[in-house]
Amino acid sequence: EVARARPLPISSAAMSSTNDQMMEMWEKVKSGANAAASQLEIAAEKTKLQAEIAYVENKVKSTKKDMGLQIYDAMAVGDQNEVARVFGGFKAQVDSLEAQIRDKRGRIEVLDLQRP
After folding, report:
1. What does the DSSP assignment read for the chain?
2. What confidence tens digit (pLDDT) does each residue in 80-115 have?
3. Closest by alpha carbon to 69, among 54, 52, 86, 56?
4. 100 Cβ contact list (under 8 Å, min separation 6)
């Protein structure tokens, strides 16, 4: 007959210490996972803002092209009042779009400061 080894008794202090170590390790794992998730959220928001900036920049170019077409017609007939009126209207649109771009770039800078 084969003799079986008996398990060694573990003191309650040793079990408590092991449980504490396991809990500490689990907290570190959770903390690391939360930090990684936070970084992913920041990266996703930054990517979204960059895409929005590209879209608004294209709107600025398009708006300026439209302005050029209208101003050309007014300049062709020598109507400086119409040139000034058209420019004023389009300038307000471009200024608004450029303000949106500045705002989005500012938000990206804030996100960059949140990185470790």
Report:
1. -PPPPPPPP--HHHHHHHHHHHHHHHHHHHHHHHHHHHHHHHHHHHHHHHHHHHHHHHHHHHHHHHHHHHHHHHHHTT-HHHHHHHHHHHHHHHHHHHHHHHHHHHHHHHHHHT--
2. 999 999 999 999 999 999 999 999 999 999 999 986
3. 86
4. 56
What digits encode the pLDDT tens for the residues 46-90?
Answer: 999 999 999 999 999 999 999 999 999 999 999 999 999 999 999
The span from the CA of 26 to the CA of 32, in Å, is 10
> What is the residue whose two structure tokens read 């929005």?
52
What is the spatial distance between Cα 92 and Cα 67, in angstroms, rounded to a whole number?
12
